[in-house]
Amino acid sequence: MVRRDELAEVLVNLFENARDAGATRIIVRSGRHARDMAGAARDLGVKIEVQDNGKGIPADALPRVFEPRFSTTTSGSGLGLAIARRLVEAWGGTIGIASELGAGTTVTLVLAGPAPPARA
Q1: CA atoms of 40 and 35, how far apart (whole Å)
Q2: ∠ at Cα 27 (96, 6), nearest 5°?
Q3: Please, are residues 95 and 107 in contact by the beta-carbon 8 Å criterion?
Q4: Mean pLDDT in the chain?
Q5: Structure pTM?
Q6: 21 near 52, Cβ under 8 Å?
Q7: Which DSSP helix (H) or strand (E) runs through 7?
Q8: Cα–Cα distance measured from residue 60 to residue 65, given in angstroms and rounded to the nearest whole number
Q9: How much is the average pLDDT of 89-110?
């Protein structure tokens, strides 16, 4: 179950990362996530995307961004994305990141939907 204060903490971490990356624009999108990996329609929960136009993350750093204490800046503690991942996964959700150097970063959260109905 997603707690409001924890979701706020995740989003604030993402906004701070965008600011630290020099972003002048942050776009937040949300909606129902209604496709599984095979493309079948079903209720998979809520999808939240946070997109910025900051400097982006080098491709060789992307696999490490969720590691505690890893940072691409000298000012960060390297804990923001690690905490975000821990919280999102504790809710049964997923967090992913895509970035292009010089173009910005998009972080995607998929928060679990309702449990399927029990079968008799």
Answers
A1: 5
A2: 55
A3: yes
A4: 87
A5: 0.84
A6: yes
A7: helix 4-20
A8: 10
A9: 95
Residue type, 79: L
Secondary structure class of 5 (helix, strand, coil): helix
| 28-67 pLDDT per residue, tens | 999 887 655 565 656 668 999 999 999 999 999 999 999 9
Query: What single letter denotes the amino acid at residue 67?
Result: E
Question: Could you give the CA distance from residue 2 to residue 19 in angstroms, rounded to a whole number?
Answer: 25
Helix axes of 4-20 and 80-90: crossing angle, nearest 10 degrees:
150
Half-sphere exposure (CA, 13 Å, Cβ side) for 31?
4
Burial class (CB in 10 A: 0-12, 13-18, 19+), 75: exposed
94 close to 110: Cβ distance less than 8 angstroms: yes
pLDDT at 73: 73
